[in-house]
Amino acid sequence: MNSPRLILFDVDGTLLSSGRRGLESFSEALRRTFGTEGDLASYRFEGKLDPIIVFELMQKAGIPEDVISERRPAALSLYLDLLEEALYAEPPALKPGVADLVARVSAFPSVVPALLTGNVKRGARIKLTTTGLWDYFRFGVFGDEAPRRVDLGPIALARALERTGRTFSSAQTVVVGDAPADVECGRAIGARVVAVATGRTSAEELRAAGADIVLSSFADVESACEAILA
Ligand SMILES: [Mg+2]
Q: 79 by DSSP, 3-state: which?
């Protein structure tokens, strides 16, 4: 594997699941900040950006937009404090094969592993530090850097150049994620998309969304490596 590759990994549903602890922290932060968690129980988080999740939930719960904008930074900051406490006590579960996969792809000098996620930076750092993966990623593009996930792709390509001094073409870029929004984001920059059905979206749906390769999981690390580095 000598040809350069920029690999942009999603976090939740792809690398790990912070499950109940993540959701509880989010719920408590919303309740303490806005007096309601809104329709959190039926909300579909996949592929969404954290600040947008707060906005959509609170808007639907009838909180005025100016109040949401004003209190959102406090809500997110409280969420991160609660998340940090919860995940340091009980780290998130890594998806099968992930620890090995990330270590293996990172070992190629020509490969740049990075993050493209809806988490704000501190959230991603908490989730990946508590699972021992944070230091593998050369840089990240996070949920508070654009209004839509699809806008994060071009930022990632620019940041890759800035951080590595190398330009990565679309053909050298791979987006790895578990949701249709990841597929859309990858296609928008012409990247290859490797989707994994370890989140809430089925393999069929990921295929229908246009992923180039769909894996049921990364448990078969050898195949997953091949699919990503192909
Ligand atoms: Mg995800």
A: helix
> Is residue 132 domain-shared with residue 29, that is, in the same domain?
no
pLDDT tens-digit readout, 57-72: 999 999 999 999 999 9
Domain co-membership, 9 together with 28: no
CA of 121 to the centre of ligand 1 (A): 15
Give me ligand 1 centre to Cα 44, in Å. Answer: 11
Q: How far apart are the first and last CA of the chain?
A: 9
Separation of 14 CA from ligand 1 center, angstroms? 6
Prediction pTM value: 0.96
- What does the pLDDT look like over 77-102, one tens digit per residue? 999 999 999 999 999 999 999 999 99
Segment holding 93, helix H or strand E: strand 93-94
- Give me ligand 1 centre to Cα 197, in Å: 10
Ligand 1 centroid vs 9 CA: distance in angstroms? 9
